[in-house]
Specification:
157 residues, mainly alpha, 2 domains, 67% helix
Length: 157
């Protein structure tokens, strides 16, 4: 490993905090600057689906990184101390997994899924909210409810 890489690895906490803050700030700069959308006055054409989707993803990143930062830093801390600093913590992978989970959760609440899997996830999640809030915690990964014994029990039809 080069001397530069070793110095960065020793300061991985600072690098992580700076990267998280920078990513959140970039997201908000993009959103507040108009997110690639035309100005509202005289808006002749509606933005494309790709533009709206990208704007939504960036907005979710900007909102969720500040909320998730303590958990991300805890994950990096535990990794660092359990691994003896032999490798840098994979915080980017952890962050990507968290954002995927959070975006699935948001979509289950605010969009009507079209796929069989999406409909199944939404059904399980709505059961968690409206039938039994003691079960069904695996929002984007319901197999964890089987592992922990919190899977919803199907009622007789």
């Amino acid at each position: 490993m080069s001397a530069f890489a070793e110095r960065i690895a020793k300061r991985s906490r600072v690098v992580t905090v700076v990267a998280l803050a920078g990513l959140a700030m970039l997201s908000w700069v993009y959103i507040l600057s108009g997110a690639g959308l035309p100005t509202m006055s005289g808006m002749a054409a509606s933005p494309s689906f790709a533009t709206i989707t990208f704007m939504w993803w960036v907005m979710m990143i900007g909102m969720m990184i500040p909320a998730a930062s303590p958990t991300i830093l805890l994950y990096a801390h535990v990794h660092r101390h359990s691994n003896g600093a032999k490798s840098p913590p994979p915080t980017a992978a952890f962050l990507a997994g968290y954002l995927a989970y959070d975006m699935i959760h948001y979509a289950l609440h605010h969009h009507t899924p079209r796929t069989r899997a999406g409909k199944w996830l939404r059904e399980l999640h709505m059961r968690h909210h409206f039938q039994d809030d003691e079960r069904g915690f695996g929002i984007s990964a319901p197999y964890w409810d089987r592992v922990f014994g919190t899977m919803h029990v199907r009622r007789g039809r």
